[in-house]
């Protein structure tokens, strides 16, 4: 599908996307991704999309790309459609849906992290949605690459930890699991939810917190999560180093697709 030049997603970032893992010939967490996109549409005042159409597009994308038999990333994009001048949407927006697939080899190495200068705006509803406006994340990732690292750890305007540029953030301290609270400006990641559920099934205390980056200095382990990487342990963060950790490894195995 091509997008016309007056598409609001292209011009204004007015839309949402989901990225999900295609593995073993299917999309094991498709329903969770579609549910989050539907919640995002409600938050943004966009029309309800046809979930069956979205499902068919996502399932067809790997085959159309010749990737049906390999591990792949499927991206579903929803835009507010065309129309309206400037910021104003038309009275009855007609949304667009499109899906594409790309090969996605598993990540097997630990991640090196740096603290980004680029901040997330916790006061914006967009900070908790997977919108098409991802410039802050792009800039944070560029900071990490310029510093010779793999990924950036982001904070909000209060200095609280939020996430990585393209992943949720977790750490282990004193036998408990910690992750930034959603109100800090954090996306409710599908993999994030699965990790929290897995940890609680192990009777591990899980704390969703608002805290500064100094918390990572005291951590026994740090790891990132998203739908493509699962659980990826951190090796370094701003001079701190981390080795393998039993809880992080157990969680990685539990949420592996």
Task: Provide a descriptive summary of the structure in words.
This protein has 257 residues and is of the alpha+beta class. It has 2 domains: 8-103, 2-Layer Sandwich (D-amino Acid Aminotransferase, Chain A, domain 1); 111-254, D-amino Acid Aminotransferase, Chain A, domain 2 (Alpha-Beta Barrel). 28% of the residues lie in helices and 29% in strands. The chain has helices spanning 8-12, 30-44, 51-64, 135-146, 190-201, 214-217, 246-254; strands spanning 15-22, 72-79, 96-103, 111-120, 151-156, 161-164, 168-173, 176-180, 206-209, 221-226, 230-237, 240-241. The strands form 2 sheets. Strands 4, 5, 6, 7, 8, 9, 10, 11 and 12 form a 9-stranded mixed beta sheet that branches. Strands 1-2-3 form a 3-stranded antiparallel beta sheet.
Set out the fold topology:
Blueprint: H1 8-12, E1 15-22, H2 30-44, H3 51-64, E2 72-79, E3 96-103, E4 111-120, H4 135-146, E5 151-156, E6 161-164, E7 168-173, E8 176-180, H5 190-201, E9 206-209, H6 214-217, E10 221-226, E11 230-237, E12 240-241, H7 246-254
Parallel strand pairs: 4-5, 4-11, 8-9
Antiparallel strand pairs: 1-2, 2-3, 5-6, 7-8, 7-10, 10-11, 11-12
């Amino acid at each position: 599908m091509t997008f016309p030049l007056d598409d609001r997603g292209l011009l204004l970032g007015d839309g949402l996307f989901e990225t999900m893992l295609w593995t073993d010939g299917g999309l094991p967490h498709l329903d969770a991704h579609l549910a989050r996109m539907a919640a995002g549409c409600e938050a943004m005042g966009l029309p309800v999309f046809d979930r069956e159409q979205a499902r068919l597009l996502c399932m067809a994308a790997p085959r159309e790309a010749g990737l049906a038999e390999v591990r792949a990333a499927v991206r579903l994009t929803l835009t507010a459609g065309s129309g309206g001048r400037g910021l104003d949407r038309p009275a009855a927006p007609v949304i667009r849906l499109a899906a594409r697939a790309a090969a996605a080899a598993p990540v097997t190495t630990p991640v090196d992290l740096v603290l980004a200068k680029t901040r997330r705006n916790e006061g914006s509803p967009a900070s908790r949605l997977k919108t098409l406006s991802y410039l802050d994340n792009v800039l944070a990732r560029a900071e990490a690459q310029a510093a010779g690292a793999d990924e950036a750890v982001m904070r909000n305007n209060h200095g609280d930890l939020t996430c990585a540029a393209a992943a949720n953030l977790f750490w282990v301290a004193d036998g408990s699991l910690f992750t930034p609270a959603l109100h800090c400006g954090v996306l409710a990641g599908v993999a994030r939810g699965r990790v929290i559920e897995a940890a609680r099934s192990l009777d591990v205390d899980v704390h969703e917190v608002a805290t500064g980056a100094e918390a990572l200095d005291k951590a026994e382990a740090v790891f990132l999560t998203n739908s493509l990487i699962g659980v990826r342990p951190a090796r370094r963060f701003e001079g701190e180093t981390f080795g393998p950790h039993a809880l992080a490894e157990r969680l990685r195995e539990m949420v592996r697709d």
